[in-house]
């Protein structure tokens, strides 16, 4: 049964997480033979990216994408990141269309504290009252 690249990434993590030396080498070889059998070697870059992502998740690392209307300095990124735990990897994005404030994306959530979003909510409230 063929899996998605994400599925193969998880399998690679699970079969290698506790292995060392010759056993690690053997498990990795078997994994690549499986990929060849399933004709998935062309997807290896996606599989490795999914493996790395899953390994980080399993070790408790939270990945954030923090979007601001301007480039955020390290102190601002650190201040935002600390609310998500001790193990955080934050990527910053500049999007001038949000006007101000920030948007923070995690794997499962989007927290939108942008000025653009606040203005949209205000517009909706004003339209309801008319």
Q: What does it look like?
A:
The protein has 130 residues and is α+β, with helices and mostly antiparallel strands. Helix content is 52%, strand content 18%. It has five helices and four strands, in the order αααβαβββα. A four-stranded mixed β-sheet has the order 2-1-3-4. Helix 1 packs antiparallel against helix 2 and helix 1 (5-16) crosses helix 3 (44-58). The longest helix has 17 residues, at 21-37. The model has no long low-confidence stretch (mean pLDDT 95).
Measured distance between first and last alpha carbons: 58 Å
Q: Hey, roughly how much beta strand do the residues contain?
A: 15-25%
**Global morphology:** elongated
Biggest sheet, open or closed, and with what strands and sense? 4 strands, mixed
- SSE sequence, one letter per element: HHHEHEEEH
Mean pLDDT: 95
Biggest sheet, strands in spatial order?
2-1-3-4
Helical amount among residues, as a percent range? 40-55%
> Could you say how many structural domains there are in total?
2
Unreliable segments (pLDDT under 50, ≥5 consecutive)?
none
**Count of distinct strands:** 4
Rg calculated over all Cα atoms: 21 Å
């Amino acid at each position: 049964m063929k899996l998605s690249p994400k599925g193969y990434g998880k399998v690679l993590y699970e079969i290698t997480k506790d292995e060392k030396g010759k056993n690690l080498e053997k498990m990795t070889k078997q994994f690549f033979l499986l990929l060849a059998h399933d004709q998935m070697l062309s997807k290896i870059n996606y599989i490795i990216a999914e493996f790395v992502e899953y390994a980080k998740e399993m070790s408790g690392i939270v990945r954030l994408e923090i979007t601001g209307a301007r480039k955020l300095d390290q102190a601002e990124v650190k201040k935002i990141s600390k609310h998500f735990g001790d193990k955080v990897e934050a990527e910053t994005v500049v999007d001038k269309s949000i006007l101000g404030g920030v948007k923070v994306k995690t794997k499962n959530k989007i927290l939108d504290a942008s000025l653009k979003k606040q203005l949209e909510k205000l517009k909706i409230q004003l339209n309801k009252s008319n």
